């Protein structure tokens, strides 16, 4: 079953992350945002490569949705 990202997390990725961004930078930003749920944070930690540099939200979402 595909994980369903909250609207808040999707908005955060699209509007509050400066691209390009490493997986670590994305996770750090999500951890400091109160509107990103703990479930979304936990799933993102499992799916994002912390050392990879993502060029865009679409590239990050590809890994997040795998």
Mean pLDDT: 90
> In the residues, how many domains can be counted?
1
Structural class: mainly alpha
Give me the count of strands: 2
Order of strands in the sheet with most strands = 1-2
Compute the separation of the termini in Å.
11 Å
Report the β-strand fraction as a percent range.
Answer: 5-15%
Low-confidence stretches: none
Order of helices and strands: HEHHEH
Q: How large, in whole angstroms, is the Cα Rg?
A: 10 Å
Percent of residues in helices comes to 40-55%
How would a textbook summarize the main sheet? 2 strands, antiparallel
The total of helices stands at: 4
The shape, in one word, is globular
Keyword list:
66 residues; mainly alpha; two-stranded antiparallel ribbon; 4 helices; globular
Structure description:
This protein is mostly helical and about 70 residues long. It has one domain (about 5-65). The protein is built from four helices and two strands; from the N terminus they run αβααβα. It has a two-stranded antiparallel ribbon with strand order 1-2. The radius of gyration is 10 Å and the shape is globular.
Would you kindly provide a brief summary of this structure?
The chain is built from four helices and two strands. With 66 residues, it is mainly α.
């Amino acid at each position: 079953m595909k994980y369903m990202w909250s609207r808040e997390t999707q908005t955060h990725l699209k509007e509050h992350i400066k691209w390009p961004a490493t997986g670590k930078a994305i996770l750090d930003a999500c951890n400091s945002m109160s509107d990103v749920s703990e479930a979304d944070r936990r799933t993102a930690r499992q799916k994002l490569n912390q050392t990879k540099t993502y060029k865009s939200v679409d590239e990050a979402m590809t890994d997040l949705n795998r």
